[in-house]
Fold this protein.
Amino acid sequence: CADEAANFEITSLNDDVMVSGITEGHTFDWNASSLTIPEDGSSQTTNDFDVIVTHIATGCTSEAHVIIYVNPDPEVKDVEFTYCADEASDFDITSFNDDVMVSGITEGYTFDWNISALNIPEDGGLQTTNVFDVIVTHIATGCTSEAHVTVYVNPDPEVKDMEVTYCADEAANFEITSLNDDVMVSG
């Protein structure tokens, strides 16, 4: 996977090209040392390497060819959403699966969320911030990427029910908006 290939060292394959796995007494002359690493979301890259292995005592040589395929990591993005407290009661973290994918496509991937309960503010309280992490795994390659979802939850206005009685002569000039301050708990 691309994230693993970033730390690749060609000499780590020295024992792999030896049938016996023993590298002592040999030198390894590789024709290249770095991998072509795919960008997130791009296709697999193929890397061809040749190595000449020389037996130090005899000077005899053999050549081996190594092909390394590097798969891209899933292309993900961090996202933010804002809800009102009453909307957050039906919160389902898996509804964000397509949002964290740059392509929006979720087929062929698994999503492992570090879900905890959504912190919802009390009416009239302060906005809450919730941060969730997800590990996205490409099923076919096993390559993974991590994304973060930040969910802000705003409190609903704190209101109260009320009854108002007017006399007939007062009701003629009544405007419903005159009660706006009265239905708010904080005034």
In short: The first helix runs from residue 2 to 5. Helices lie at 2-5, 14-17, 85-88, 97-100, 168-171, 180-183.
